[in-house]
Structures are given as structure tokens and as C-alpha cells.
Amino acid sequence: MKSKWLFILFPILFLGSCRKNQQPDRKNPSELRLVSPIYLQPDTTRIILSDYIPHFTSVQKIHSSSRIKIIWSQDADTALIIARKNIRPVENLRIHAGRQSIDIPLFRSTLQQITFRLPDSEHYHQVAIKADFTGWQSIPMHKENKVWSYTTLLDPGQYPYLFVADGREMLDPANPVHVPNGLGGQNSVLNIDFNNDKRPRLDFGHILPRGFSLIVQNHTDNILVYFDNHFIENKTGITDDSVYISLPKTFTDYHFLRIYACNDYGRSNDLIIPLHDGHIITNSDELSSSDFRKMIIYNIMIDRWADGNPGNNRPVASDSVLPKVNFHGGDLWGIDKHLQSGYFDSLGVNTLWISPLMRNPDGAWGHWPHPPTKFTGYHGYWPVSNIHIDSRFGSEKILHQLLNHAHARGMKVLLDYVANHVHKLHPVYRQHPEWFTPLRLPDGTLNLQKWDEHRLTTWFDTFLPTFDFSQHRVVDVMTDSALYWLKNYPLDGFRHDATKHIQTDYWRTLTRKIKLRIPHPVFQIGETYGSPQLIRSYVGSGMLDAQFDFNLYDAAVRCFAMSGKYAPDLAGAMNESLFYYGCHHLMGNISGNQDRVRFISYASGDVRFDEDGKQAGWERHITVSNDTAYRRLALLHAFNFSVPGIPVIYYGDEFGMPGANDPDNRRMMRFENRWNKAEKELFHTTARLARMRSRHMALLYGTTQIKARNNLLIIRRKYFNETYTIRINPNPFEVQNLKAYSYEILWQ
Predict the structure, then answer these.
(1) How far is CA 645 from CA 478, 521, 572, 704, 725, in A?
(2) Are strands 412-417 and 493-496 parallel, antiparallel or unpaired?
(3) Is the pTM higher than 0.85?
(4) Given phi > 0 = left and psi -120 to 50 = alpha, else beta, which region is 25?
(5) pLDDT digits (tens, 9 = 90+) for 256-279
(6) Which DSSP category does 58 fall into?
(7) Count of domains forming the chain
(8) Tell me: the pLDDT tens digits for 65-91?
(9) Which residues face 717 on adjacent strands?
(10) Who's near 295: CB < 8 A, 6+ residues apart?
(11) Are residues 301 and 216 in the same domain?
(12) For residue 96, what are the domain limits?
């Protein structure tokens, strides 16, 4: 094997400067946050400097290579980056601010011009296209020479779409690739190639006395190395299949190396290597407690977990409310009781995500027709106060107690926070109705549940006014309300509700305030249903740390709950996630959530994909009638614990609690004394997977390769001398010596 040395030049002066001057506000280097790459547009990209330098007025200079043109005025918070024709797939941008400087990777645009066509065989009067990249809004197509067409720019990936001809939705007759749409129908799918076979690929080699080796597949023009957020100059061209990188002679505390390669076909996968006190970390026990990649999240709906204090129970007394949608008595005392008894330790999770604690109304609201019922705020998403704890959920004292007990066990706690709306009984709505969007549109129709058409102004219900975050006064007040929880309680972060329905100014302002005012690391993860482009637009250094990867989850449901024939689609969705969010992203990989039919109920066939999941939960009692469903759910857990991102277990999924959609997927938690044999076995399988995930660097920082062969999923994770191969058979028959609905994990 031919090889070359790539020396990282670290003069002692540079290291001293890095510690003393480059990071003056960071007391603990383990709290270092790697800046997010900037995904460039084909022509001009606008960046916001305060995303990277909160005190942006201290910025003195911005520069890059000659292949990048920068337009910026001193003291302005925005800069324009113009990519020239000879731009490389990865460039570097350096920002000087006072005695600091940071380097940001710039990614060349990968957008391609794509044209959709529909022959006018039926003499249509109007034709439109609707897709995830249009927000599922109908966009008119143009007719020329008896062909309807629509041209747009798209990144590589998978794109579900439909044509709408004279008001009738239809598949693309020229495209044989279809997938279920989750509503009983089908969507056509366009697949745009990633050019994986030509782009360079990096893999780990060996750790050496003063450095390490990397394996390089495909020719590469350049390798870029970052020490924390500082680009390291090197003079060695890389043309062979292996490269050696030397570590700096001395460094203390926690740091990261981040590495990219590129050639004419694009950029490689990224590598991230954690360092500690002069060496490469190879034992996960050495990772910093603030390293978010170690998290395994457990999602709890407080009212449905455990009733630890019957004295605070206060269900809504009304004949118009059925028991399924009333308060059941779960509270923080119940969570704390099971925390102290070791339930979460035995499961292997280390982060609790608890539902909103804010005070909710006492009455009944809304309407469900069959059977007729109103709803209560048992879920916590109808705030009538943004700073007071609902007494049915707990108190300030028990919240502090829970946080202290969690932190003593090395666990984090995330709070579900609602910013998009309030209940109409909230004082702020009465005092400042001008802070909210109108319920009616200009044409007089209700702006209600228009999730895509008017996603930044729509109301969720007639009693849930939506904030108008186009007003900066509203942004300032509401971000302070969110900050209240971090200032008054040692919470470790937020799960943010309805992320895509809130203007980015809110997220930027909140994140900047957190950076400037909160001394400990804060993790923020959002909820957005939509295309990868839309989801990624809310993730970055000045925005959120992550979002839930619902597109990957949908592909996983099809693969594991329906049939192994969707294994190639899941492999494609995984590669798409790595492409859009990075190979070491922090996206949440869910087992389910409060807005979806329980996975196990799809897998058992007790809820059909072509029926209304909510109605199914009201019409019949959903059980697990097919024991293979437990094995299929184990496959979903095995997948989530094996791939990049953060595993997220929805309460009850660790043992296979069934349920149709809301509210049937929010049943009261059951514990071990009420589990059957299959449920107990699934719990222990989930716990083993969680422990495996926590203990092995290959699953936390390793490279990832995924492919589908004969409808068998094969995942390979590698980190230096540690390699895992995970084989998952989602088929109802044996494949390559793997039994139906089974998996194996091979260590090398």
C-alpha cells in the first residue's frame, strides 16, 4: 500500500494562542461546539456572522481562497459569499474577531437542474406538481409541444411527488418507482444519484505512536484538517490510498479533529476524532459528559408515566370528556420514583425528555366527532403560562429534586418547550392580541392547520393563537420566556415543538442568548416534518443542534413493519441523511412518538397503513395479535442504535406497548409486573442494544457504510481497530443464514 505523510504543523506558539486567546469564554474545553459547515448556493449565499461570533461587532476580517468572493461591510451582521466557477467541493472561510478566529468549512453547491415531464395525452386544461420539495403545495407546470413540464434545482436524494391533472392527483406514468404515502396511497419517487462510487471516501486506519493513518478510497485532490474550529495548513498533496496524520506534540483537555477530502466529483464523508490530554480517545468512558453524541434519549409524556403523588390529581370533571383524553395523574414524583428505583439505568438510557411542564387550562376544548368528545391539556401543549409549572405535573421543588437525582446518576434532562402558540386563556393573548397572527386569511377562510400553505402563521386550533414572530418584540419576549427555564432550573436542553412553524429569527435569537447567558452546554432538538432541505435549514451553529429525522423513520417503518422489499429504500434514506446532515450528525432517530401509530401496531397488522389511525384507536381495542411484531420492533431498535444520530425511545416502545394514533398511543405506562414474556424479552434486547451503543466508539464516532443486499440490510461502522458489522433481516423468510425478522452484530 502506497502512502504519504500529512503533517499537521502545530507550533507551540499556536497551541498557547489557541488556549489563551482563541477560546477566552470557554472555561472547560469539553464544552467546545464544532461550527457547522455552510452549504453554499450555486451563486450567492448570505451568512449571518452572529451565528458563529455572538458579538459580531468584533469581527475585523473575513477571508477565503481566491475561488470565493466575499462582500461584507464592517460591523454588519451579514456577509455575502459568491462562489466562482473553479470552486472546490470543500473550501475554508476564516473569520477574525478581536483576538479570536474561527474557520468554517464551505461546501460547494450540489444542486442539479431537474425537469419533470407529463405528456398531454388526455388534453388536460391544468397540470401541477406537488412534492416534498414544494411543501406539498401544487406548483403549476408549463405546457409546450404537447408536454407539461416543471424545472427546478434539487440536491441528490429521494423525492416523493405527484402530478395534479385537472384537480386529480396521479402518479408519474413514466416512473415505475412508488412508495406508500402513509395515507393509504402511493407517491412516485425520483432518485438523484449521489455519485458515491466516484467521490472520495475516508476510513480509519491505525493509531501510531505520534499520529494515525487513514484509508483513502478514490483519488482525492485535497484533505482538509480542523483542530477544533481551526483549519490546519498542510503542504502535502494526497494522491495515494493512504495518508498518515501526525498529532500535535502537546495538548491538554478535550479537543476534536475533523477531516474532509474532496475531488472533482464532490466531498468525502467527514471524520470526527475526539482527543483528550494528548491522545486519541478509544474508550467511550473517556468522552466528556457534555458530549451529545453519547446521549440515548427516553421520551416521557408526564401525565401518562406514573402517578407518584395522588394528592395533585385533578382530572377535568365534564361529561363531554372521555377518559382517554382526560388527565390520568402522571407527574414528576412518578418519574423521580422510577429514576431512583433504577428503571432508566436498567434500560441504559442517559437522557430524559419530559413533556411540557407549563400550566395548561382546566377546562375541555376542541371536538372529536366519533365518538364525540372534547379534550384536555393532559399533554401539556396548551400553555396558559410560560413560566409556571402546572400543579398536576409537579412543583418547583420536585423539579429541582428530579434534576438533582438525574444529574447525580450522570443523566441529562431535556424539557419539551412550546413557543409557537398559547391557549387563548393565556394572559399574553388577552393583553397583546396584536402579537398573534390572524385566525382568518384575507379571503375570509380560517387559517387553520394549513401546515404547509401558511406554515409560519397557521393556527393549530381555534383556541390556540399562533405568535407572530415576524415582530422582533415578540421574538425578544418569548425567547426570554424560554431562557427562564434554563436560568431557574439546571435543565440540559430543549425539545422544541413545531419548529418549522416559527421564523428563524426566533431560533437565532434564542440560541444566541443561550450562548451568551447560560454557562453550561445546552442541547436543542426540533420537530419538523418536511423535506431534508427544510429540516436542515433549522440546524446549524446559530440555530438548533438537531431535529428528528422523520424521513428516515418513515423509511424504517416501511422496511421493518411492512416488508423487506423496502430495505433498499431505507439504505437510500440513510445515505440521504448522512449527505444532508453530516456523517456524525445529532439527529434524533425515533422509535415512535405521540403523533404516530405505535410501530408495533403497524408491524402486528392490528392497525392498517390504509386506515385512519386515530379512528382505529377509538373504534377498537388495539393489541399485539402477532408475536413477530416484537421481533420487528427489535429490528427497529437495532437499526436506531447502530447508525449515526441519537437514539430516541418513545415510552413503552422498549417493551412493545401497542396503540393506534393519538390518543391511543398515549396510554398509561405499564411496568414489568404487567409485562408478558415477549415484552420482557424485548425490554432486555433494547437494554443490551443501549449498552452496546454506549460502550463502543465505532457506534459513536465510526464511519458508516450501509447497503441492501437481497433485501438484507448491512451496516458497517469502523473506528480505528474497532469494527462492527450489523446484519438485519426484515424479511418473513431466512436470508443469508439469518432467520426471519432477526439481526446479528459482528465485531472485528
Answers:
(1) 29, 18, 16, 11, 17
(2) parallel
(3) yes
(4) alpha
(5) 999 999 998 899 999 999 999 999
(6) G
(7) 4
(8) 999 999 999 889 999 999 999 999 999
(9) 704, 724
(10) 350, 351, 412, 523, 646
(11) no
(12) 4-109+197-281
